[in-house]
Design goal:
Blueprint (H helix, E strand, L loop, with lengths): L4 H20 L4 H9 L8 H16 L29 E6 L5 E6 L4 E5 L4 E2 L1
Antiparallel strand pairs: 1-2, 2-3, 3-4
Length: about 120
């Protein structure tokens, strides 16, 4: 099966945000993944759910105590969704421009569209 671009971007963003934490203590990687995925995993593909389950299983099987953030009273990380654009004909691929002001989309009809992200308008 294929991993979706959104999944890759999500994991890239998470790893970028926890880089300093995990550099100091690599054992915290699974717990950080659990904390950041627990409330948003349903919004992404089954690959994210599998990663969440693998991180949880690793924490269970690890030989020493590991912090696993499962309680609802722990502050969760806000969703990584910045903006939502509705595309009429569906999209096959997307690519943001260098400064993330515009987004190129290829449609199922083999057309290329460009959206202005802040205004959410088709250019």
């Amino acid at each position: 099966s294929n991993i979706l671009d959104a999944d890759v971007l999500l994991i890239h963003s998470i790893l970028k945000n926890i880089q300093e934490i995990v550099t100091h203590d690599p054992i915290l990687l699974a717990g950080e993944l659990i904390n950041r995925l627990k409330n948003i995993k349903a919004d992404y593909s089954e690959h994210i759910e599998n990663l969440y389950a693998q991180a949880h299983d690793w924490c269970k099987l690890y030989g020493a105590p590991v912090f696993v953030p499962l309680s609802s009273w722990l502050n969760s990380i806000p969703p990584l969704i910045i903006s939502i654009l509705h595309c009429q004909d569906g999209v096959n691929k997307i690519a943001p421009t260098t400064y993330n002001q515009h987004l190129f989309c290829t449609t199922k009809n083999h057309e290329i569209w460009m959206y202005h992200i802040p205004s959410k308008k088709l250019v």
